[in-house]
Amino acid sequence: MNKLVLRALRSLSLVLMAWSLQANAQSELEIDEVVVFFRTSAWLDTTRDEWHVPIHGWVYEPEASTVRKALFEAILDSQYDLPVTEDTQANFDHRINLMIADNERGKRIVVSIAGRTVSLPASGVDGHFETTIVLPAATVGKHAVGERLPLHAVLAADATRTFAGEALLLQPDGWGIISDIDDTVKISNISDRRGLLESTFLKDFSAVPAMATLYTAWSAQGASLHFVSSSPWQLYSPLDDFLLQSGFPSAALELKSVRFRDKTLFNLFKKGTETKPAVIEKILARYPKRRFILVGDSGEQDPEVYSRLMRKHAQQILRVYIRNVGNASSGDERFTELFNGVDRDRWELFDSAETFLPVELSCCADF
């Protein structure tokens, strides 16, 4: 057998071996470990006719630690006069258990997406795994469900569980909404520490009136929706469930990375001026031809963050809308200074979403 034939056989053997390993690949999960896929938004490279699809998720082991739960419960009761009652016990247990869950490091999740099997990078110390895969547009088109591309974790053949996610397929052109969550679409009382803790860990989540109707109307006119919030990633599932059940359109969420065992715990207390600009600019960079409206509230730093971004990205950010959560006025020094020199019709302080209903986005007519 000559050398060329031997080389061909070796190459074929390696290909078959690789195919076999890939075909038999499955996620490295124990029976008590859970995977959450965060919804993402993909972007299209029209020059190469390829979709860039972010995959981001979290691997954790539920932790029902009675000691840690009791500590949280005692702090809420003794320092904030927020006892856990029979009515709030279920919310407290669910949300605290997510916050104290054990992050699983070094786990390799294998996903099935667009007819392919892909092994993702190993999860980090926070249990998160994240990557972006590139897929031909034709392939994505064959497997997309409307404007969504589904994916799921590949598990053992006899597994009874499923872990699924999706990426939203956003076209390069168009417009979108980048929105805060707390006190913008969800009542959180973020300026009041006691009220914030109560709404986060004890009470049922409550939607700001008419905001879901407003966002649905914008979505019906072709808007994409992106939520950027200071809430921790651990609360992604209850937050996403709340938003969908309240009637908000499907959206990618960008939350805050927090671990209770290292210095990232202090990320909870970082101001929005430190955390939000980079996240919002990442969205702007992914969709350079899209135009955006930024929606936030007056309770914290959304006006400061948005006014600076509007000046820096004047061609991409068309409007800034700020929900008034106090007794502020658009003539207050805070707003006149922040938006000094900005056309008055490009920003608005509003008391109710009904201000915008019925919605016609004449600002975007030049698209």
Give a structural overview.
By secondary structure, this protein is an alpha/beta fold. The chain has helices spanning 3-23, 66-80, 89-99, 137-143, 193-201, 211-220, 236-245, 272-286, 302-312, 333-338; strands spanning 34-38, 40-45, 50-61, 102-103, 110-113, 116-119, 128-136, 148-153, 164-170, 174-179, 224-232, 252-256, 290-297, 317-323, 347-350. Strands 1, 2, 3, 4, 5, 6, 7, 8 and 9 form a nine-stranded mixed sheet that branches. Strands 12-11-10-13-14-15 form a six-stranded parallel sheet, with helices on both faces. The longest helix has 21 residues, at 3-23. The chain is globular and about 65 Å long.
Please give the largest β-sheet. 9 strands, mixed
Structural class: alpha/beta
Radius of gyration: 23 Å
User: What would the average pLDDT be, to the nearest integer?
Assistant: 88
Report the sheet-strand fraction.
Answer: 25-35%
Give the total of beta strands. Answer: 15
Number of distinct helices: 10
The separation of the N and C termini measures 66 Å
One letter per element, helices H and strands E, the order comes to HEEEHHEEEEHEEEHHEHEHEHEHE
Which residues sit in consecutive blocks of at least 5 with pLDDT less than 50?
A: 11-23, 262-267
Helicity level, as a percent range? 25-40%
The coarse overall form would be globular
SSE topology:
Layout: H1 3-23, E1 34-38, E2 40-45, E3 50-61, H2 66-80, H3 89-99, E4 102-103, E5 110-113, E6 116-119, E7 128-136, H4 137-143, E8 148-153, E9 164-170, E10 174-179, H5 193-201, H6 211-220, E11 224-232, H7 236-245, E12 252-256, H8 272-286, E13 290-297, H9 302-312, E14 317-323, H10 333-338, E15 347-350
Parallel strand pairs: 2-9, 10-11, 10-13, 11-12, 13-14, 14-15
Antiparallel strand pairs: 1-3, 2-3, 3-4, 3-7, 5-6, 5-8, 8-9
